[in-house]
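Colleagues,

For the teaching module next term, I've prepared a clean inverse folding example: a structure given as tokens, and then the sequence designed for it. I'd like students to try predicting residues themselves before seeing the answer, so please don't circulate the second half yet.
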């Protein structure tokens, strides 16, 4: 049995192009893109998903892997994968932002540790919420939803020399507003409670100037903040589910007619 160059190129492309999109998404998405997740594990998962998904995608465009057109196709696949993972990652950025606002109001802005999602220093309050959000994300099958949306992306944006159009990039850029709005909403109960406590301490200081507000205020503010966090945990769950749903709706909105 002899194989022609075109047949070999088509066979390589049927796995190479999907692998690039899937692997790029895994490196950018939460859970899979965790800084503590070994690179070998991500590549292995990408290979397994490619082998499972590729046969369902139909024939791929026959492109010489060494040609300029192949570079353009590879670039589009990587950008599409990174964009999808980035949108979901913004959900966790929203949680981190909300935790940072809480930490500043509670006087814990100086207490920080490394976030495994991003590999950067974040307040411990943010890290606490990130852990809760990660557990919720896995419980609601968010990792499986990522795989599903990748499969859908090949139907909306087939492999080829075209990618997202200009409106899709504007949609991605507009997600920054949702990060700030969502972060403020997550932190709002704690911010409001601590503001009331600070107002009460201000009135007490005016009534009793000899009161050492610095010795009393910090532990009370921190205790009230953590108490409100515990009480609002069910609300956080509902809000996080809405954030994840919005992220996947945004990704699917990118799969409309593409003009390149």
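(Answer key — instructors only)
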């Amino acid at each position: 049995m002899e194989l022609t160059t075109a047949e070999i190129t088509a066979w390589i492309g049927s796995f190479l192009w999907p692998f690039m999109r899937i692997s790029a998404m895994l490196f950018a998405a939460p859970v899979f893109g965790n800084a503590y997740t070994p690179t070998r594990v991500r590549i292995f998962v990408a290979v397994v998903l490619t082998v499972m998904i590729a046969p369902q995608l139909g024939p791929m465009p026959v492109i010489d892997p060494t040609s300029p057109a192949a570079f353009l196709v590879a670039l589009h696949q990587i950008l599409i994968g990174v964009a999808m993972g980035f949108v979901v990652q913004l959900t966790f950025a929203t949680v981190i932002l909300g935790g940072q606002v809480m930490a500043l109001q509670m006087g814990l802005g100086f207490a920080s540790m490394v976030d495994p999602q991003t590999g950067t220093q974040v307040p411990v309050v943010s890290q606490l919420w990130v852990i809760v959000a990660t557990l919720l994300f896995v419980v609601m099958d968010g990792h499986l939803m990522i795989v599903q949306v990748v499969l859908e992306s090949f139907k909306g944006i087939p492999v080829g020399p075209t990618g997202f159009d200009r409106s899709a990039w504007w949609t991605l850029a507009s997600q920054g507003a949702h990060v700030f709005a969502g972060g403020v909403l997550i932190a709002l109960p704690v911010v409001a409670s601590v503001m009331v406590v600070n107002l009460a301490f201000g009135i007490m200081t005016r009534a009793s100037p000899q009161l050492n507000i610095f010795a009393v205020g910090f532990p009370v503010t921190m205790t009230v903040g953590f108490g409100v966090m515990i009480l609002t945990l069910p609300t956080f769950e509902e809000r996080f589910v809405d954030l994840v749903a919005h992220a996947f709706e945004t990704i699917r909105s990118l799969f409309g007619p593409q003009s390149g």
